[in-house]
Amino acid sequence: MTTPTSAKLGLEYRDTNGFGAAQGGRGYHLPVDIAVRSDGRIYVLSRSALNSFRGCNIGITDLEHNWFDKIGEHGKAPGMMDWPTAIVFDANDRLFLADESLQRITIFDAGHNYVGHWGTHGSGDGEFDGPAGMDFDQDGNLLVVDEKNHRVQRYTPDGEFISSFGSEGSGDGQFNYPWGITVAPDGRIYVADWRNDRIQRFTHEGEFIDAYGTSGREEGQLDRPSDVAVDSTGNIFVTDWGNQRLQVFDSDWNFQTSERGAGEMSPWALEYIDANADEKAARDVFDPYPELDVDDPHEVSARTEPYFWDPAAVALHGDDLVLVLETSRHRFQVYEKT
Amino acid sequence: MATTTKSGTDLDLIAHLLRRAGFGATRDELEEYASLGYDGALDRLFNMGDPEALPVDLIRRHQAEQSDNRIAPASGSHWMYRMATTKTPFEEKIALFWHRVFATGQTKLIQGKVMLSQIEMFRKYGLGSFRDLLIQLSRDPAMIVWLDNQDNHKDNINENYGREILELFAMGVGNYSEQDIKECSRAFTGWTIANMPYMSIRMRNNTLRPYGYVAWQYQYDPDDHDDGEKTFLGETGNFNGEDVIEIICKNPATANFVARHLYHYFQADEFPVPQWPFEEPKDPAAIQLMVDAYFANDYSIGAMLRALFESDIFKSEETRYARIKSPVELVVGTLRLAGGFDWPTQEIYKATAACNYMGQALLAPVSVEGWMGGGDWISTGSMVQRINFASGTVGDKNKKGIKAIVDGISERHPTGDVNAEDLVDDCLEFLGALQVGDDTREGLVVYAREQGEIDPRTDDGANKIVSMLQLIVSAREYQLV
Amino acid sequence: MAEQREKVLVVVQLSGGNDYLNCIVPWEDPRYQDSRAAVRITEEEVIPLDNGLGLNPGMAAFKDLYDEGKVAIIHGIGYPTPSRSHFRSMDIWHTATPDRVGEQGWLGQAIRQMDPNGSNVVTAVNFGNALPRALAAPGVPVASVGDLDDYGLLTGMAGAAQREQALSAFSRIYTPGVGSGMVMDYLGQTGLDALKGADILKQAPAMYESTVEYPDTPIAKSLKGVAQVHMADLGTRVFYTVSGGWDTHTNEVALQRHLWEEVSTGLRAFFQDLEEHDLGPEVTVLVFSEFGRRVKDNGNGTDHGSGGVSFVIGDQVKGGHYSEYPSLDVGRLIEGDLAYNFDFRGLYTDLLEDWLNLDAQEIVGGNFEKISPFAGAVA
To answer: What is the complex's ipTM, to 2 decimals?
Structure first.
């Protein structure tokens, strides 16, 4: 590993994309995952509320705020989703969708057509109980975080079980309701070990390398990390969900920077404000950062619109842009590495 | 026919206490509390400690709508989880009590998040000094906006909050003048929320756009506060809200009013609140007991309730089953008997909806006067909902609590034959030492006989036990607390 | 059959705020086209009506009813100082008291006038689990039916025989005994009334026969239930049904069309069913929503507004337009909303006085201008 250079990695806010769309249409509703296709288009998985299903779909946009419609809808039939958790593309732009209620992985082809699904509920080899995060390994096989079985399983893209690693616990290589996963450009596997407040790192084969994180709110500490992304130089981006922030580490876990969020009105939001003149006038005197009498991060985010509120996923767009998806604010923020 | 435990404690009395100060109890919980003795059980109830409820992070991750808690089913269910799983039920009962007295509704506020913050405040301050509670209430963003105090300005007062704190929250009609209302309102000018114009208009337009709601933050605006001299309830000074609250709290009318509310909720159904100025309290001695505790303990609500619970008035036989259960009491009590909320589940929404169908939408009382309670809860429509919810919930023998009851009864009858009388009595006991009238018991026994042979070790026997549980929770006595 | 029965009111509530402009569409009006740059019913899509207006493309079945002369369109309906809160606005419609929080539902009071002693426990039947405030009034029994085929007490009992035994046990243990006290007596009587209501309503699906096929939608299922209970002649005078999901801030064009298809086809089947049984003349349907929506779209949908549209539908209704379409002139809009020009309490007065033969003044709290949509009524 290279030693950290003197200059730390920084992040600069670039943009906000999104709009609360509880009834479907352009925007997102309680989104939980984000994926970037090879051509740069951005796919956002909206889970929506469990008892109000219209916003349950995969919305498609790009860095220029174009809207390319959506894939899927709420339901239990093939091609539909109930409690979706994660999306990922394979090398051929096929889209894989995980669903923790239907306990299945659904596949759409590059043209967004439903082509099939697989998955069996259970705790045996190859069975899962709550698929929560996904990524493809360097061989083109799919790693699935099996939340309630506290492990990671590896399958062929067609769902044939290959291997698994991890068990319930807090020791090396053990998990406590893990969530997000990423395969770094160097092939190593990173897992957000959610309820152990740490990120664990494994070899391509699933051998434990190291774990990083202690519970807390201090710089470098973690509280229920949801997801992780790694760039070409090995920098690690962690959505520190419980602390409502993004933390960045170099490949040796040296703390680089932390970002609380700086969301602004997206073009879709501005269109809405233009249609509601009374709100526009009041928005003009709106102070996004009022003085607060609370310090719980969740409550702080609830009261501070620009801040991340429930950052559930992080993705890289190219190697320089970092996308942070916020469930409770129905949007993602774009940051650039500096 | 009082049942006593090994420790000699009156189990029926403990059951009565847990129904009133909690949401009833399973047989195991009863034993646990009874082993402490009555005073020990009281200590345990008053010790809030760690609620050990279903962890919030699990809920937020798996039911994302209970993280922003915008919509009413989500916020109501978020509280429902806590009530259904907490180890400190008295804390929730107190929160529910203040929710009824300080009735605030997200129907107007639109966002449930600020309502849940108010409930959390009730948990924290609900048993403390009434002074601290009223100060917190007056700073509570949900209350401020519910009663328009953000529109209460130095040069143009809005009397809504100033009026209701006197009329509905602390003193009751007849104990202050219209002038007192104005002076009280002046004292609360400048008590507002941050970003008031934007927050107000988004509430008015009822919109989550563009990025969901921004939860409200209390803000004191000294420039909009009327610092002039005020004469309130006979005292004169440059009062601010805190001063007014102190004057309210030391007034005997306040002590009486709060005591009557506590009586109405924990002891026996009183007249509906609007009739209080015209009707004497049903039990002046009980009121006096609590009033004395109020003044002897720095206006402590906890001291008032402790005095009530320790009194023979509360312990008496006539007090038991004298109140009609509110829908929340009925639903939560039944959920706690059935158990099984150790992971976020859709079922919580059905429970919250059931309360709504029975006439008590959590966090959404129809008006500032709250729910009238008593006989108002009962109509043909609500009876169908109450009976079907309770019997449906205990009818699921896969639920932990129900399974435990079936197993418990089975253990008592190792030879496998249970006669009708024993079945009825066992079921009543396992449902939390329930007592029923002779007619009801007779009806249950007849039903049990109709079931023929009952062998609890078999599936058929288990089904018959479950059906008896279903019938018991459909009985009139189960409607009472 | 077809002996003279008492008149019946069926309410269809569209919850969420039906967008008036995209329901009764002024499609030729350039002001409409300008305000609705993104969320517009186009010339190709609109179902032309008359008076320069058209219907939402989802309303083809509704057009059939209109062509039969059954549909009165009440334009610009609303109330003074409009509220854009779903709950508050709906509450105002339910209690007919815009100026304060009303205590009793307008239909609850109507039912009390019809049956002051609550002698028929099914005078009002609500399809849905939650009792709408419109039907709520102290001492007024209302049966709330989630699913008519499965309505009753102790529905969670596993076996049919066991349930029968349990129900008879229920009726025994609810029968007030001597000296059991007021509260127990009250619980007993109410429980037995609930049981009676369930027993009565249970008959309806068994007696029902029809060749009409209802669409497989929630609102059509409710309307079929209305038809079943009405045909069973149980003395029900007021029915309540709800269609949800009209809050079209996003995705409006697709969503509203879909919802109108459900409501329109459901209503058409309902009226065909009544006609088949020669029961049409006894039934009037009120369709309303809590408010209309903003004139200017937000790029993807529309936000909460005020002035809206209601419909009264039935054989005895004089079809056509009532009141006026509010002006789309920017200067005539109120805070970006269509200005209401007809108070809904006038329409309630029509329904209460001229359809149900009740005293309306007390319920709606005064005298309001009526529109007289019924054939027999004096204008």
So the answer is: 0.96
